[in-house]
Description:
By secondary structure, the chain is mainly alpha-helical. The chain has a domain at 24-173 and 422-610. 60% of the residues lie in helices and 2% in strands. The protein has 29 helices and four strands. A two-stranded antiparallel sheet has the order 1-2. The chain is globular, with a radius of gyration of 26 Å.
Amino acid sequence: MKIQAALITNNSPYAEVRAVVDNHDDPNLPVSTIRAWAMGIFFAVCISFINAFFDVRMPSIYVISTVPQLLAYPLGKLLERVLPDVGFTLFGVRHSLNPGPFNKKEHMLITIMSNVAKSVPYTNYIVWIQVLPQWFNQTWATSVGYQILIALSTNFIGYGLAGLCRRFLVYPAYCVWPSSLVTIALNSAFHDSSSETASVTGPLKSVWKMSRLRFFAWAFFLMFVYFWFPNYIFAALSYFSWMTWIAPNNATLANLTGGWTGLGLNPLPTFDWNIITYMVDPLMVPFFSTFNYFLGAFFSMFIVLAIWYTNTYNTRYLPINSNKPFDHFGKRYNVTAIIDEKGIFDAKKYEAYSPPFLSAGNVVVYMFFFAVYSATVAYGYLYHRHEIMLGLRDFWRSVKRSWSRLVKKTNNTDSDDEEDVDLLDVHNRLMRAYKEVPEWWYTICLLLAIGVGMAGIAAWPTNTTPWVVLYGIALCLVFVVPIGIIAAMTGVQVTLNVIAEFIGGVWVEGNAIAMCFFKSYGYVTCAHALSFTADLKLAHYLKIAPRFTFWAQMVPTLISTFISVAVLQYQVHIDKICTQEAPFRFTCPGPNTFFTAAVFWGTVGPRKIWGVGGIYSATLIGFPFGAALVVLFYWLSKKWPKNAIIRNAHPVVMMNGALAWAPYNLIYIWPAVPVAAFSWLYLKKRFLGFWSKVSFS
Length: 697
């Protein structure tokens, strides 16, 4: 306990955090500089335009924030050399074109700006299926005002909740956010070269003097060269289905071991790093998370096999592991065959055609989707109810302080107000040097997002209640903290897309567009809240003033929203867009899938599929099963608290692993396990210095 207390006081108790996060700070380091804002907005504009323009391409081109992070360093050093030290003074603070050396805080601020701008507004998918004649042909949806309002709403609504969740997901030391550590490691590789020259002992008695930056450069070069072999030169290295080569005509062997259409039960399935890291990054995510994820996929495989081999739900007539819906002829389900010319469900056409049928793998995926939602809520209550209550208490104290300052016009606070969550954490203590963002800033942002969203839905003929916006917030409030805690600790995130579709489809059955709004606000609100929270943790680790971070998130998001809408306005008028004859390969795989889901969940509706008498109603057992499994593991942990196996078991991550099926399989999961074991169990335990230096590079 003394060692743990000392670590919390002087550094993080987690080795992966200590490896990349500095436990010192210089509050006088320039952060919100003119050059940082200029570069941040420039990269935000570029990344938002590229991602929006190529979002409908097959295959899509998507730029992540790592690219601006890499480009920002040489550009920042160039501006450091060429810009003169001239500027102006505003509110007693001098702002210079060149305030000195380009530093790590400026660099991270630029990265945060780029990161928040990379996502295309989720409501663009709604506009696509509304506007185009091959879908719902609602030409009024080309209105710029309509597109801007709903895009602004879904893009900003997560900010308000992210700010309110800071004391649950940012301040606590146990909220590590593994994905953030990779970003910080790359940032440190550029700026902390002086501390990178120390020698460390590696495997086979090797001595490493190489800096993180040089190691990253070599790894980048070698990965670039190797990429061509599994992807182009010798494609069999990617899907190394050598077991099917033994008996190419054996369907059972192909179903079990096949990497493309089968279950991927193969001990040596791939040599492609993109596939190894597709589901879980074994170098970033802790080993226990990777292994729990694999266990969930492995054991659920037997349920897939049982359903398929017993021909339950007529699955023997379908591919064992497909994510496509099928008709009773085993063909791809034609959703246009059950709707009228207005896109409304036609019962007679539905009866004349066919109900949708799912593959065995897809049946299991839906069952465990239901399970993971109940498990998440149960896990949050049983395992983290004390932390949640501390966060709520801290939030209430913050509200009281703000009320005292605004209404009573006093700066006095109660003595217990100083007892913040994780008071001893070194990073929280260092962040006290900066003013926190008041709760009312985030509240105003949330209210504005609600207002513009309701206005956009109500002012145009969407046939959707404006209260759908509040539905998204209510769903997020239930799940955001437990999902956030799980993601912050394990690196594995539960998504709300299925539960949002399920509830929305039941609520507005027969109305596909309304269901799309339910899905958008139900899913995006929580997803954005967690994404923005992860960025807040980045700023927390780098000791960037919270108010700088607030505006670094707000401004690029606003700019990227208008850019995305402008691109959408251009693209919807391209001739033959979203068809097989579309120019530039703009065949719109995303909107096509979104339209299928809209009709499947909205027009047909969950009642016909999962309701009383529905073909897949038995899969609703997932809801009680998920909660019961969490209760079981909780009881086991209390019964045998020192058992290492039980202590490292994570039921929610396990069930999340069961979602890997249809169309993916074990080859996307199993190869990560030995890599994670080598990194986290061997290198970390025996060569901590070496592991700390290269693991996140």
